[in-house]
Amino acid sequence: MNVLKTGFFVAVAALAVLAAREYVPRDAVQALTTRVTGGPADAASAASRHGFVDIPLPDGQSGHHVVIFAPANCPSDAAQRAEALARRLDDAGIPYTRSQSANFSTLSSQDDANRVMSVMNGPIPVVFVRKRARANPDAEAVVAEYRGG
User: Nearest 5°: CA angle at 107, between 106 and 108?
Assistant: First the structure.
């Protein structure tokens, strides 16, 4: 019986994902991805000078410091970039926290969800500076964004 319930749940979840893909305009997602990753100037106009975009904060984050989302104690290149970023923030005296996961239970619109997806699905580490985020920023961009320059 449990096998049937599990199979039914998987089938319904797969159908929901396929149906949702039809409602998200591909052009909107591509434009947002271009903006986040540093595309043409008109698309980047909504981003800060350092490429950070406004997105809702993950659950439990105050937005008063830098948050680095990356795997901990991992030898991957992404984890090593996060480690180097943390060292640079230490050197600059900038407060930060690290996390391995983020939850967004209070997204108010599809636009918010699209912006969160475009950043959180980018290369690791994902970094939040106050209420803005960017996938895989260099350390100098994080320091400059934090200092408001």
Answer: 105
Q: What is the pTM of this model?
A: 0.65
Strand 132-135 versus strand 66-69 pairing type: unpaired
Q: Please name which of 66, 87, 82 lies closest in space to residue 147, comparing C-alpha atoms.
A: 66
Helices (H), the chain: 2-23, 26-37, 41-44, 77-92, 110-120, 139-147
CA distances (Å), origin 34, targets 73, 94, 110, 122: 31, 29, 18, 11
Tokens 């981003």: give the residue: 47
Work out the mean pLDDT of the chain and round it to a whole number: 74
Please, what's the largest Cα pairwise distance for the chain? 60
C-alpha span between 14 and 132 (Å, rounded): 32
